[in-house]
Design a protein that fits this description.
Low-confidence stretches: none
Number of strands: 12
Radius of gyration: 30 Å
Number of domains: 4
Distance between the termini: 80 Å
Number of helices: 27
Mean pLDDT: 87
Strand content: 5-15%
């Protein structure tokens, strides 16, 4: 019987040993890892499991002999520049342990330094995420990192805690014994046993990437974009780093005089989101599953893998990503959204719709050389329609795949425009505008895409703010920072007044049709009066023409203030749908 050959060996560590190797840089993260994304609550649960003596998993390591790029855990330099062992899986657990035991900050998914504070109550051995109340309560050790960072003996730590706690309430000898036992037990977590499976250095990068994918596909939920990012870290590390740099810079407003950056008020993209744009643009595919195999160099007909084919496909991805990360393209695309009436992420109900619209912008600009002013209107109209209808809400990859397939036979800019317009026309029929859309506005959701489209349409049409001489567009500017929002969603029929009429169902009270954008001082002034009382007072401030313009732009039927509430909602939803339609049609080519 032949002996089973494995590509790994089992090595036992205690936690203190693992942390020492991280301290000196002997254990590090390969670039196939994702950012630290665990919440403090999940870190708390990890410590609770260890404290109870539960198993918390093993660590697969890879012997590093390549001298390739690695990421260190924590912030700061290491004694060993090149690590001996790389973590294949378990980044979240090991980073959590390192951060808490060493009291060190880590870089989170927003590329910011973050402190993880886990609190412990010695009286009963309970863990919790530290908050202001816990920090004030002498029953708690608010940050367990101090137990290991202080370098004091466990006896001194226990005595100091008991003395502090005894000031509040006298402790019995049993209390003191329980506290001492629980603190000692917590401190001894540094002896917690772990098993590492060390993958041999003879295993190449592609196999390690495959192991990473296989392990994670059975545990942590990864999507196909994560798998592709894994391959990028192995075969095109510069591309992965370019994605991360772009995403990091999109989260930081540039200082005056600094170079252009991807910062914007619509989205702070993650690498996997921009990867989806690159795949849609460069490979004309919405589904990422098959692209993973293509990038590995698989011939989809023969099933065979080839390094040459892999390099060729990565070349296509490189060319596509260069266009996606081009700052001119990025900001010109964002101006399409502004032109369509959308001003910030607060008005975006679907990031999928936004990102796929960017892919279509690049297709129109680079593949079909569509004139920019035409492209701006087309993509603004496309995003408006896709967002309004929730086109990419369910099975977004499948829908995008279908949309891209329609473009494969298109030969020129005229065909590109016609194809997108046909898709929109098939969705936005007259029945949609007059029946479906008013029905969809029968909602109390504050994230209703129809509501965002309505505000965008008002912006497009130059609507005045209700009960104001200012324009909606003036107060939607996301760069204006105030203590209170310049515009607030206000109940036209105030909640307290409706409740006095016996209407107490919040879904009825908070109907989209019962809201309008007001400046916040007006919102306060209206208070809880019925519309029949407050409207005549406000109307005196405006001329007849100004008042009519205001009612028209805010979808308010004549005499609305005296209507029965449910009748008002029905009539206003019809008028809101008409405003949305008018705003959308204003985006058509002149």
């Amino acid at each position: 019987m032949s002996e089973l050959n494995t590509c790994f060996k089992k090595v036992d560590y205690d936690l203190n040993g693992l942390l020492h190797y991280i301290d000196i840089g002997d254990i590090a993260l390969p670039d196939i890892q994702r950012p630290f994304v665990w919440s403090n609550a999940k870190v708390r649960d990890l410590f609770d499991s260890m404290y109870r003596g539960f198993p918390v998993g093993y660590f697969p390591f890879w012997e590093n002999v390549t001298g390739g790029a690695t990421k260190q855990i924590g912030v700061g330099s290491k004694q060993h520049v090149i690590a001996r062992l790389l973590i294949v899986d378990g980044q979240q657990r090991l980073t959590s342990l390192f951060a808490v035991f060493r009291g060190r900050k880590v870089l989170d998914e927003d590329y910011k330094e973050r402190q993880i504070d886990v609190a412990f109550r010695p009286r009963d051995g309970k863990f919790e995420v530290a908050d202001a109340a816990i920090r004030r309560d002498p029953e708690w050790i608010p940050n367990i990192s101090q137990l290991w960072a202080s370098r004091s003996s466990s006896r001194k730590l226990v005595n100091d805690f008991i003395a502090k706690l005894g000031v509040k309430d006298p402790l019995t000898s049993d209390d003191e014994e329980a506290i001492a036992f629980n603190v000692d037990r917590l401190i001894d977590l540094q002896k917690y046993p772990f098993t590492a499976l060390e993958i041999a250095s003879s295993v190449d990068e592609e196999q390690v990437a495959d192991i990473f994918v296989r392990i994670n596909s059975e545990g942590v939920r990864l999507n196909q974009a994560d798998f592709i990012l894994t391959l990028m870290s192995v075969f095109w590390d510069d591309g992965r780093m370019a994605l991360e740099t772009f995403c990091r810079q999109s989260r930081q407003a540039p200082s005056p005089g600094s170079p252009p950056s991807p910062f914007n008020h619509f989205i702070q993209p993650d690498p996997d989101q921009l990867l989806r744009v690159a795949v849609a643009y460069g490979f004309q595919r919405g589904r990422l599953k098959s692209v993973y195999q293509v990038l590995r160099g698989k011939d989809m007909d023969t099933g065979l893998y080839s390094p040459e084919r892999r390099d060729q496909q990565f070349g296509a991805l490189r060319a596509a990503q260069d266009e996606v990360l081009n700052l001119t393209h990025w900001h010109q695309f964002l101006s399409c959204l502004i032109g369509a009436g959308f001003r910030s992420g607060d008005m975006i109900s679907s990031q999928n719709a936004m990102l796929y619209a960017y892919a279509f912008y690049l297709v129109g600009r680079k593949r079909f050389d569509l004139i920019e002013h035409q492209l701006q209107r087309l993509i603004g109209r496309w995003f408006f329609a896709a967002s309004l209808t929730g086109r990419y809400t369910n099975s977004p990859e499948t829908v995008m795949d279908g949309d891209l397939n329609r473009l494969k036979e298109v030969k020129d800019a005229v065909g590109f425009v016609a194809t997108l317009q046909t898709i929109m026309d098939n969705e936005l029929t007259n029945d949609y505008w007059t029946v479906t859309l008013p029905s969809n506005l029968d909602s109390s959701s504050a994230r209703n895409p129809e509501l965002f489209a309505y505000t965008a349409a008002q912006n497009r049409l130059g609507a005045p703010v209700l009960f104001s001489h200012k324009k909606v567009a003036d107060l939607l500017d996301p760069s204006i920072k105030t203590k209170k929002k310049a515009l607030e969603r206000h109940h036209l029929f105030p909640r307290a007044w409706l409740e006095r009429q016996g209407i107490d169902d919040l879904k009825r009270i908070n109907q989209v049709g019962n809201f309008a954008l007001l400046e916040w001082p007006d919102n306060i002034d209206i208070s809880d009066d019925s519309p029949a009382l407050y409207v005549p007072e406000i109307q005196r401030r405006f001329s007849a023409d100004e008042w009519k313009c205001m009612l028209d732009h805010h979808a308010l039927p004549g005499g609305w203030q005296s209507m029965a509430y449910d009748v008002f909602l029905i009539e206003r939803r019809k008028l809101m749908a008409a405003i949305i339609r008018k705003g959308f049609e204003s985006l058509k080519q002149p």
